[in-house]
Amino acid sequence: MTHPKSSANTDELHFTSLDLRAALFSNLSSLGYDTMTPIQSQSLPLMLNNLDVIAQAKTGSGKTVAFGLCLLNRLNVENYSVQALVLCPTRELAEQVSQVLRQLARQMPNVKVLNLSGGMPLKPQLDSLRHGAHIIVGTPGRVQKHLDKETLSLKKLQTLILDEADRMLDMGFYDAICDIIAICPKQRQTLLFSATYPAEIKKLASQFMQSPKRVIAEEPNTEIDIDQIYYETDQSKNKFSILKALLLHHKPKSTLIFCNTKEQTTQLATSLSKEGFSAIALNGDMEQVDRDIAMIRFKNQSCSILVATDVAARGLDIKELPLVINFELAFEHDVHIHRIGRTGRAGAKGLALSITTPADAERLLAIEEGLKQPVRWGELAALNKSSSTIISPDMVTFCLNVGKKDKIRPGDILGALTKDAGLAGDMIGKIDITPLYSYVAVHQSKADAAFNYLQNGKLKGRKVGVKKMR
Predict the structure, then answer these.
(1) Does residue 307 sit in helix, strand or coil?
(2) What are the distances in angstroms from CA 210 to CA 53, 156, 176, 207?
(3) Which of 160, 217, 403, 467 has a Cα at 20 to 30 A from 376?
(4) In 10 A of CB 318, how many CB atoms?
């Protein structure tokens, strides 16, 4: 397996240097794509040359555009058989990938991209499969189900993509992935994208890839402005009181707290809520709708604290996240870096705090080796213990019992609250529309007025059910 080093000028390479079909060039230009990101410039020439590739890249690196251009470039649009399969860990990521692929294929006529994800009704998927598809994007469990029912054929597959492969393995999909790959034609191209490169990824690659080329995308700005401070206690039972002290001292608007187990996220979120903090858990044991609501509330600032496992938090993109706290240290150094990298984005200074015990000594040594310097220890006595005021979230989330199936758009909700209810536009935050429900964030000061209107008024000429999310 080769492991090429980054060229010094990879961030200056243009898409025009690639051997792409004319429709893709034209569309890239119309979308404003000109210069390639590091992962695109390193992986695309290899992928377009039909080689197997292992690409180590983080969320937001441009990897979807990279593999999207590769599979679309070799697609035979006239043949309505499945020619590319993209496996993703979650329904949300599968939907994002599907949208990017459709956008890239805009100037290629009649390209059909079909999302086969769990948590969605089976019948509409079966109906769509009967009419054929060029590209399948889906989660391993649901794809495996269609293969077992023989409603999906991969006989004509040319390209297999494992997106966020490390996360899929963390979620327990190893056997399902192996079963799916066993059904794929042996003569195919396999592309594997992963933020980290653990032993299971190496094992998967050695089993199912042909002389893969490995590339690692270095971020153009490797210097992230993040303060890392560590607090040690002799006993694990003291960690919660330290966490409370940190939150009361810093008073952040948004905090992402990491735990290593699903059980710990639930216990910690419950304990914080009992103390008066606005906290919610996010883990893989939760129902899909509850995970969706947790993500929506944290992103729209109607919940201040999200307590999550690494797997659940992957793909969570918050532009302004002032504080990350490791309630438990990660087991691997690259996971630790991925955690703290959620803060200090978009030019803002970040803060990452970690609560440790003597049992964490080995993990701390790994962190120091990665930092090339000793960790910085914080003084618990220096924390402001006189302040007991807990900052409430700025926003409140309302759930409406209408969604995409009812042809509801964000503009419909915004218009109803501004024109009909008389709220100022800056009092209304993020609006999320799902197939069955809609979620709107409203400033605390206008929450009662919004609720009264939504309860008694109309949306697109009809009454809707509304409830406040807590």
Answers:
(1) strand
(2) 9, 18, 20, 9
(3) 217
(4) 17
How much is the pLDDT for 319?
67
Task: Note whether 10-216 and 226-382 share their fold.
Answer: yes
Specify the residue for token string 């009264």: 452
Residue 304 DSSP code: S
Which CATH superfamily is 395-468 part of?
RRM (RNA recognition motif) domain (3.30.70.330)
**pLDDT at site 148:** 94
Of residues 287 and 63, which shows the higher confidence score? 63
CA-nearest of 166, 215, 194, 197 to 1 is 215
State the amino acid at position 278 in one-letter form.
Answer: S
Q: Residue 288 above 80 pLDDT?
A: no
Which residue blocks in 31-164 are alpha helix, DSSP H?
Answer: 38-48, 63-73, 91-104, 122-130, 140-148
Closest CA relative to residue 322, chosen from 352, 356, 288: 352
Q: Is the pLDDT of residue 198 over 90?
A: no
226-382 is classed CATH 3.40.50.300: yes
Can you give the pLDDT at residue 314?
67
Task: Select 10-216's CATH number: 2.40.128.120, 3.30.1370.10, 3.40.50.300, 3.10.310.10.
Answer: 3.40.50.300
